[in-house]
């Protein structure tokens, strides 16, 4: 294994000069720096980033806190975070809070001392706990709070796209199956419903209630959707939509002939459903990648990040990623009643 001592001997300089030439090249004369870099490349020497980070007060690691890794939404965001972190030379500690706000707060406290910064994905913690997290650089995903940098998707516009699609198919009574009461994303989607009501007064939109963001939540809401007399339903996420379809099938309600169903997020389960779900799509991997870009920019070490055409994360306001409607087989013309 090639060491810094080997590079120093071959270059004819001290070990400290090698370290400066590779870590702080501006502090070394150009001729010496070029000679050290050439020798390091020829010998195949790779600096120990972890040790360098410790000397600089950095761990070289980022922390990611998610509410539920079993949810494909958070699994997809996590993959985006990990991929971009690798490109910027960082490791990632991923922890699952299990939808428990108290545990989430405990995990955040523990990660602050082990990482350079944190990505909090759809955090459930109270506002006071989010303020306490400011001790370390923090980026929020799908939440905005008092000046903390954030990345989110345009949920309100996604709802409007779904209602426009259903209206074009002749649906005039559309139900919305909401998510958890404290969900920031759910509040934004309900805001999108308000915009749809103003823009399309001929479409009646009904909020059915608040449910768990899982298959069980959709099953619990299905009977209420049928009782509402709606001919179409927009679900809080794809898992809720799957639960709706399963329970409707048990009741003999055909999707989409009797009731059209629209999901949200376009996770991998949307195309595995029967029928495949029409759903509002966000590029979840990009969502995670943008969170890392903002965090690394805040750390002042934005190395090797891939330019995806987005604004500079060091100077841009909170990022809102666009959405699009993916039309599949779970929606069709409104039934004739």
TrEMBL record:
Transmembrane stretches, start-end: none
Limits of the HTH lacI-type domain: 2-56
Pfam family for this entry, one: LacI
Keywords assigned: DNA-binding, Transcription, Transcription regulation
GO terms, molecular function: DNA-binding transcription factor activity; transcription cis-regulatory region binding
Entry superkingdom: Bacteria
InterPro entries with a match to the protein in the record: HTH_LacI, LacI/GalR-like_sensor, Lambda_DNA-bd_dom_sf, Peripla_BP_I
Keyword match Lipid metabolism: no
Keyword Transcription regulation recorded: yes
Gene3D superfamilies on file: 3.40.50.2300, lambda repressor-like DNA-binding domains
PANTHER family documented for this protein: LACI-RELATED TRANSCRIPTIONAL REPRESSOR, TRANSCRIPTIONAL REGULATORY PROTEIN
Protein name: LacI family transcriptional regulator
